Amino acid sequence: MKRTVITGSGSFIPEETKSNQDFLAQPFYGADGRRLPTEPAVLIEKFRAITGISERRYADTGDVTSTLAAAAGARALERSGIDPEELDLLIVAHNFGDVLPGGLQCDTVPALASRVKNTLGIRNPRCIAFDTLFGCPGWLMGVIQADAFFKAGMARKALVIGAETLSRVVESFDRDSMLFSDGAGAAVLEFRDTDGGILHSSCLSHCTDEVAYLKMDRPFRELPDGDQRFMKMNGRKVYEYALTHVPSAMKECLDGSGHSLGDLKKIFIHQANQKMVEAIVQAFYKLYGQEAPADIMPMCVHRLGNSSVATIPTLFDLVTRGQQPGHQLESGDLVLFASVGAGMNINAVCYRCD
């Protein structure tokens, strides 16, 4: 039976490491514009206890989101062994386009996918390059889009990339800035005869009261340029939303695949923060009246932070290449991908390794 399979993965993790200790001299402000009275050292320790994040990666000043994407894409193509000229689709998921260091203008013309195609030297005009904006679930939405193209008979091979430089769209005076990081992850997908591949997918968008849980807004501390906007998050609302809706979406996806919970080997969930993803997975298992196994969910948020659309493909690449201690994948293993983010959007994919 023909299904969508991942035949190569790649990631690009920037070299610059910014540890929690690097924020000790940073004053933090609240939404009311006042400096938070708690000492930065105390805030940082509370942050680590909740999020699990000890360090994150920032892109080099010479890089932008599209260059990170191209690097990850090149590695995925190399590991897949396919000729890049055979690609039918090149999809890049991001949220802010190319943002220069020190700037807040989002550059999306031409599309990042077009820039990546150019950087990779792909000349085939039938390789259609386009971007996907779907919040943090963007890369997984790109995978779902490619799968739909395949099933419609419009494509057979695709490169799907998630890349972001969130460090350039957050306000340094906002303590939430410690969550975010930069990076890129990619996968080559092919439609071919297999016993594995994508078995089922599900998506949700809640865009009423939830639409502004993550948005661009004024800084907490007034800056000389009063028109500047930064990414802002209502963390409590995001947490409540995710815990309410993501577990049931994951269950719908797994049940739709025809498999049982006991068949599941790994869960690759968007690396938002440790407390939230652990709570989501536990809630998912409780829908079946069970407790989550200790080894079901690999995590890289502790050392890489939250790089939005890049977290799932980066984590999958690390596990696939044996770079995530205690976690590995073999042919026939059943995995569940899931993500949640701005929109508010949710998606999940049930996949059996080829």
Automatic annotation (TrEMBL):
Stretches assigned to the Beta-ketoacyl-[acyl-carrier-protein] synthase III C-terminal domain: 256-352
Pfam families associated with the record: ACP_syn_III, ACP_syn_III_C
UniProt cross-references to InterPro entries, sorted A to Z: ACP_syn_III_C, ACP_syn_III_N, Thiolase-like
Organism superkingdom: Bacteria
Example GO biological process: fatty acid biosynthetic process
Keyword Lyase: no
Entry keywords, A to Z: Acyltransferase, Transferase
Annotated GO MF terms: 3-oxoacyl-[acyl-carrier-protein] synthase activity
Domain Beta-ketoacyl-[acyl-carrier-protein] synthase III N-terminal: 130-203
Protein's name according to its UniProt entry: Ketoacyl-ACP synthase III
Species assigned in the record: Flaviaesturariibacter aridisoli
